[in-house]
Write the structure tokens for this entry.
Amino acid sequence: MRTDLCDRLGIEHPIVGFTPSEHVAAAISRAGGLGVLGAVRYNDPNDLAAALDWMDKNTDGRPYGVDVVMPMKAPTEGSIGDLSALVPPAHRDFVEKTLHELGVPPLPASEDDQDGVLGWLHSVARAHVEIALEHRPALIANALGSPPADVIAQAHDRGILVAALAGRVDHARRQVADGVDIVVAQGSEAGGHTGEIGSMVLLPEIVDAVGDQVPVLGAGGIGSGRQLVAALALGASGVWMGSTWLLTEEYAQGMPGQTAVSQALLKASSADTVRARIYSGKMARLVKSRWTEAWAAPDAPDPLPMPLQNLLVGEAHRRIAAANDPDVVAMPAGQIIGRFDHLRPVAEVIEEMVAEADATVSRLGTTRS
Amino acid sequence: MRTDLCDRLGIEHPIVGFTPSEHVAAAISRAGGLGVLGAVRYNDPNDLAAALDWMDKNTDGRPYGVDVVMPMKAPTEGSIGDLSALVPPAHRDFVEKTLHELGVPPLPASEDDQDGVLGWLHSVARAHVEIALEHRPALIANALGSPPADVIAQAHDRGILVAALAGRVDHARRQVADGVDIVVAQGSEAGGHTGEIGSMVLLPEIVDAVGDQVPVLGAGGIGSGRQLVAALALGASGVWMGSTWLLTEEYAQGMPGQTAVSQALLKASSADTVRARIYSGKMARLVKSRWTEAWAAPDAPDPLPMPLQNLLVGEAHRRIAAANDPDVVAMPAGQIIGRFDHLRPVAEVIEEMVAEADATVSRLGTTRS
């Protein structure tokens, strides 16, 4: 299964895999796809540097990418202390009360000194980009659309392609005008930050709008070879997958404290996700849990805007992770998680996808009248 | 473009088209698809009988279908008067106030004597089935899942296939166990009653669950040949389309008072729909308008359950239709409406779809590694 994207990125299969785990990202690249490491969880940019150093040594010289979370225009931004002061006390009370009701204990004092996921902050995302530029990614992707113009320019100076996620056709048009090289058309099925338009409608719409200028990847609901071929039928040059990798052996091994998350995702059906603003302040799809249900209750407050919501729930997320209860998780995940009931190695996922895709194309050939 | 569905239904292309217009339904069947007439709008079953008589004469002997709205178990049901008494006065006040604010005038006294869409009532849906059985449909479809067992039995006695719409895999499994012959896997992108799972995920999931027993149709977001091929790639035997036909010449001609609706749909983007319970009491996707926005406002009441909500808004729908204002419409429509900017004849829609589907299959053949 080859498309123009393969030549463009120097990869074997038109499969781009986003993941917060450097072990998964490297395995995707080694298996012939493009592994894209999510930087947002690295509060200390030095940790991202270490992860990319490791990937440089563990990808057999194959290309990989880095994903940052960066609005095009830098927001007004104070220190963590300034920002935390903007979180209403009633919101803090709701979080504390909810965690208590869900049986999530406080953290040990030694671990209670972090500040949530700082990657949502523009200054931290900037540091992530600088670290990425010091390595050899083939691609820098931005979850929030076009990165700032100078980031695009610096990437292009180094021969690095820039990708952006788009949930609406007007966003895709603007990204291409801004100089983005690859548009990821992300349907509502996707995990994490996601819009309302389903892949079946969004993907061909974005292809028709910008596909003559840039390759378009299909994202949202992709986890099998049939779905890869469906995306290609809709005009994509390849696919961008995220949730599928959460249920791989490398993810379970490489991300500590994910036992409860794995269990929650394995037992979830495709109906067990919900879109809400409770994770970061922007709409994101999460696996349903007692935590997401608490935020959907009539007495729950409205979530705060980005980046305040993540400052509000950052400690809660760490407490939830430490409690390791499959019924109480705070985890972005797409509807595709309903299709997986056991952990597989990354290489097997890609091998099966490509084989199924080839078989699907053969099957379709018999339908011509 | 042929699949096993074509042989099963005696049609040329694997395209099933749902529409409330007998003119559109007949045109779909004449063009080689299967036109399925929505019965729910026929308050007087004799009007449905007349429409089916007309279709018998205007489909060149080709097969067609009928779609009813019928829960498997008959709900407790009083007279219209009894039911209307259950509508809270505050809800009536909200509707009246909203229509006033939106500039929607009362109906002339002569037209102010109807009772909303009665097809939501089980007794009326039963009458629709009886009328259908007196004609020669190849298919009876039910928007609310499995029809009652005796309806399935009567249809089978007459050689009529029974189809049901499913928005979740557990619904599909139950339908097949109930004796349904064709499952329509309807993704969240669809117009009208629809679930939360996107077509990209739902369709292969339902195919894997029941596709070895019955043909599965892909619905939700289908309006082009590429989307038809995507559905086939995902394992469907064909597609079920609804919203696409709302923007055909036959619909505009055959459904009086639809000028404002056509204008509203033509100007809508794929982002201009919303899922809400305001149309019937069950979740349905509608085109966004000042009417849907009013129901989303903080002061709006929660919609009533089916069938009360439609009794509440039935007169409002007629007033809105009479006012003929493209900014104030109450119209079920799927996300695919964003792709159409002019009215086309039904035959052209189908011809273009099939040609694009054939071209897409050819294109996919070149991607094999």
